[in-house]
Specification:
The longest helix has 23 residues. The protein has one domain: monomeric porin ompg (Porin, Beta Barrel). The chain contains one helix and 17 strands. 7% of the residues lie in helices and 53% in strands. A twelve-stranded antiparallel beta barrel has the order 1-2-3-5-6-7-8-10-12-15-16-17. Strands 9-13-14 form a three-stranded antiparallel sheet, with no helix packed on it. By secondary structure, the protein is mainly beta.
């Protein structure tokens, strides 16, 4: 535990060291919505059932980036049907390397590789598992929409952007994380480093940005595969909508946002049999902000469930927190 605490301290220091040069050398920046677009890209954080795919994969201030993100999630799972049944308190820590890489003006790729550190306490016992999690690779096509030309003489001067855009994404989740069959009988089957399966990812999104306000929405469907242990997590539908604005300052852009997101999980199957009380749904409210220092982006957000019914009511999501630092490409 002391070693893990030291790792976290070192991580905080690294973030400060990376951020410091951009703060001290920051220059004036313009409002973000004419030149940058925000789109919330879905990613299955721990690649397991209770890990929300609606957390988002992107930043407010820049379309292309490479960075680091820390994600904290807390759950409580009830092991039994009685009021005094034992409660398992679970903490999920995710340290994620993520990036959005442009291929052309309309095509780009999202990649992510997480390191998972999961722990739980029940009665007088503690358990901890950690390791590289499942990686994601998603290809995106962006269709920008333009204003209708009223004067044919203006056509040759170029089309004017409307601020509206559609995104279409297709991707794959790779089983780079370890799946432990001995953990499959847990009340919360999301307590895993990985799924051990290859999954398909299909997304559709819409976003709009003006000089003052912006909105983005995204819907993603995960088709879960079966792993070598004949275990298959249920397919998952994720959705999110975010509303944001900007307060430009001399050396920093401050961009607060609010959002609503959710996940719907199908039932898990094992050895061809459907497992009861392994489906569910959750809706979350999110509040956060982002700070843009030149090409350095620092973001923070907090998510709280407003409605949930997970695994027959036996699993409860308490809250989620995310902190990221990115460098714009």
């Amino acid at each position: 535990m002391k070693d893990f605490q030291n790792i976290k301290k070192i991580g905080v220091l690294l973030i400060i060291l990376v951020l410091l040069p951009y703060i001290t050398q920051a220059r004036n920046i313009d409002p973000p919505f004419n030149e940058h677009e925000y789109f919330s890209f879905d990613c299955d954080l721990c690649s397991c059932s209770t890990s929300s795919g609606s957390f988002g994969f992107g930043t407010l201030g820049n379309a292309n980036f490479i960075g680091l993100r820390y994600i904290y999630q807390k759950f409580e799972s009830k092991k039994g049907i009685f009021e005094n049944s034992p409660i398992s308190k679970e903490t999920f820590n995710t340290y994620q390397l993520w990036a959005q890489i442009p291929i052309s003006n309309a095509l780009y790729i999202n990649v992510s590789l997480p390191y998972q550190d999961l722990s739980r306490k029940i009665d007088n016992s503690n358990e901890q598992i950690n390791g590289i999690g499942d990686s994601n690779l998603i290809g995106w096509y962006k269709l920008r929409l333009y204003k209708k030309q009223k004067d044919s003489a203006m056509v040759n001067m170029g089309r004017a952007a409307s601020g509206h855009a559609l995104q279409f994404g297709v991707g794959i989740k790779l089983p780079t994380g370890k799946f432990e069959e001995s953990l499959a009988d847990n009340v919360n089957p999301g307590f895993q480093i990985g799924t051990g399966s290859v999954d398909g990812i299909f997304s559709l999104g819409y976003n709009y940005g003006s000089n003052k306000l912006g909105i983005n929405t995204v819907m993603t469907y995960y088709v879960k595969g079966e792993n070598k242990n004949d275990y298959q997590f249920g397919n998952q539908f994720s959705y999110s909508a975010n509303f944001y604005t900007a307060f430009p300052r001399e050396k920093v852009n401050i961009m607060p946002f609010v959002g609503l997101s959710g996940d719907i999980y199908n039932k898990i199957t094992q050895y061809g049999e459907t497992l009861n009380d392994t489906d569910g749904s959750i809706t979350n409210a999110t509040l956060g902000t982002e700070f843009a220092f030149s090409k350095c982006i620092l973001g923070i957000n907090y998510t709280l469930p407003v409605n949930q019914d997970l695994f027959g009511g036996n699993v409860e999501s308490k809250n989620r927190f995310s902190l990221y630092i990115n460098y714009a490409l």
